[in-house]
Amino acid sequence: MSGVLSFFGAPVVMLARTVRASTRDGVPWRESLAQLHELGGRSVWLVMSGMAFFGAVLVTIANSQARRFVGNVAVLGPAYFELLIRELGPAVSALLTASRAGAAHAAELSTMSVNEQVEALEMSAGDPYADLVAPRVFAGVLGVPLLCTLGTIAATLSAAAVAQFAFGVDGRAFMDPRYVDGWDLLAAFLKAAGCGLYIPLAAAVAGLKARGGAEAVGEATTDGVVAASLGCLLIDLTVSLAFQLLRL
Amino acid sequence: MALLTRLGRTALDALRGTGALGLVVGRTVLALPKLERRELGRALVQFGYGSLPLALATAALAGIIVVLQSGIYVQRFGARAFLGWAAGYGVLWEFGPLLLGLIMSARLGARNAAELALMQVGGQIEGLRGIGLDPFAILVAPRVVAMEVSMLALSGVTFAVAILFESVAALLALGLPVRVFFGTFSQLLGPLDLLGGVVKTGIFGLAIALLSTTVGLSARGGAHAVGQAAANAVVRSCAAIFVLDFALTSLLAGWMG
């Protein structure tokens, strides 16, 4: 029970402290840009290649479903494209980013706190929330939606290519935006931004509370990745459920 | 010139990684007959039983998400009765194995890599060799076997829970009676579909176990290296899962027609 409470509560407290600290001290812009570069540059190949494979899998599954009922994958294409834009693109890209960036952030921050670099920062009148957490949160909120966009594009292109060359269907039939409307894009953006906010916070919660030696670093990294991945699934579910209940 | 250097370094790294993976696979297989039973039991409790809450939470989330997703296009095509089939197919073939694999690469892969890296950095593995014990027989093989068994067992539980949550979500969100849901589910899906999902999860589990062991054993340095190993294990397992997912889906879909 207390585990569940701290799973939801700790990131909220971390966010509140980070916002308060950064309104007081200001966000270090140079560090934020460096973190954005770090997040984007390190995750972009993982996200894009993962999503390209995922797009190919998606069209293979659509093909075997379609052969059973409607006869042609081109009929299911537009519906699958909407599904990719609205649900799978942001959710799977965010999960990949969570494993890459969540693990890297948690490992960095826990190494710093085990080596007492965080205390050293406090001693020299720095604030760990404003100087360490805020740039990572900024990078996440800005970077994860961009990564999700790139991942969705990679998945779409590879799905179209597989449909064209492996199943002999016009690949552009898959990219038919017939069903995609503004609400789909809004749902996708909300998911990406929510995950972008949550991943650095979960990693920071796990990383900053690490105490001890190398063992604590390993534990903190594991906890950070697990919390970030599970949180991304939860955010995905919450946004989908809200849109479903509002019938948008 | 710089490009050539980078290309060469990447190729060397890839070769080194493949070689390390091959060594781990070979030595683990050789160590299988004399693996330590007590360590196997401990690892089964830690990796299997310890991951149960996380696997159940993932299953519940995956079930509801798949229903919400397939609900959109099932309603669009006016084929509400087929939701049981579409959602069951989605969980068994794709989202159950994929999401379980991604979450478990974080839970099992990162933890295994961190523990092995910790022992490697602390010189404990050298110590085992020093007193004439084979670290693969008493440390690595039990973990690999335990992770594989845990993933297979968790896949069954996960699919069952995910499908239960799907039927409830279909009733609450789309107003589809549970009887109709399970009607098309049992009519149109066979044991082969279940087998496909279990095979996929099993292979993901093997990839996670072997990759995280390789990453953990090749860690050198201090606290920094332990965190780095855990992070690398997750990233490599995720990349491997996506590649294997593609290969297995095309293979199984072609084979089952």
Task: Summarize the model shown.
The complex is a heterodimer of chains A (248) and B (257). With 248 residues, chain A is mainly α.
Quick tags:
A: 248 residues, mainly alpha, B: 257 residues, Permease_MalE (chain B), transmembrane helix (chain B)
Major β-sheet annotation of chain A: none
The backbone outline of chain B, from C-alpha atoms, is elongated
**Number of distinct beta strands of chain A:** 0
Number of strands of chain B: 0
Rg over C-alpha atoms of chain B, rounded to the nearest angstrom: 21 Å
Oligomer: heterodimer
Classify the beta-strand content of chain A into a percent band: under 5%
Count of folded domains of chain A? 1
In DSSP terms (H or I, runs of 4 or more residues), the helix count of chain A works out at 8
The chain pair with the largest interface is: A-B, 60 and 59 residues
How many domain regions of chain B? 1
Structural class of chain A: mainly alpha
Q: In DSSP terms, counting alpha (H) and pi (I) runs of 4 or more, how many helices of chain B?
A: 9
Helix fraction bin of chain A: over 70%
Radius of gyration of chain A, in Å, reads: 20 Å
Q: Give the mean pLDDT of chain B.
A: 84
Distance between the termini of chain A: 34 Å
Helix content of chain B: over 70%
Provide the succession of SSEs of chain A.
Answer: HHHHHHHH
Unreliable stretches of chain A: none
